[in-house]
Amino acid sequence: MSSEVKEFKIKWGMVIDIDKCTGCGACMVACQAENNVAPAVDGSNKLRSLNWLTVFRLSNHKPFPDHEVAYLPRPCMQCGKPSCVSVCPVIATDKREEGGIVSQIPPRCIGCRYCMASCPYHARYFNWYDPKWPGDLAQALTPDVSTRMRGVVEKCSFCHHRFMKAQEKAAAEGRDPMNLPDGAYITACTEACPNGAITFGDLNNPAHKVHELIRSPYAFRLLERLGTDPQVYYISKREWVRREGDNYLENEKTGEARKQG
Fold first, then answer.
1. pLDDT tens-digit profile of 101-114?
2. What's the predicted TM-score (pTM) here?
3. Residue 73 to residue 18: CA distance in whole angstroms
4. I need a labelling partner for 99 at 20 to 30 A (CA). Which of 64, 162, 211, 236 fits?
């Protein structure tokens, strides 16, 4: 993993309030529809599933009445120090997109899957099949997103095509395309969330809501101790949720928390 963190004037990021998330899966469906992710050929084979955004179920593992569950949506973390970039032999992925988005260029990908092995968040997926849309579903494809061929790696792009469209609109209206107002560019999952659990914006811009949210005492990032500098933050007032986010495990004998690894 590179020891350098690329700094960007604009740093697009996401804040997910786990206490608001009900695990409905609307974000997953919106992501698939927006980014032309084809329906699974075999839905029972989870080893070959393809979801750019996955919702995980968390539990505090306590008996009733103290039992609690939480749901954690996990897109690509768009790491500041992405391990996937350093291992790609053909530069199919790189952190050069405006706003610090980690790009994925399917025509360059040779399917070696080194990036998948290096990603600590398991946020990359291999496309095992040629994309097929049954019936008239092909008529509903997003025209701004190219479909991917079999044998390449796919990942969340923060709906980068929406960023480009927002910039084009700003330029046409005579506004600065590099200084978008809050809400001018949001991801499909952000727009689809019925509870408003997902907030998206420029982490470096004080005028954007995410700039304030990441400074909450309840904000945390997944496996932050690894030093990947994720641009996706989570918020939860429940301590056990925050502890699981950084991979804490309870010592059965002493009851004290310890970190795995």
1. 999 999 999 999 99
2. 0.90
3. 8
4. 236
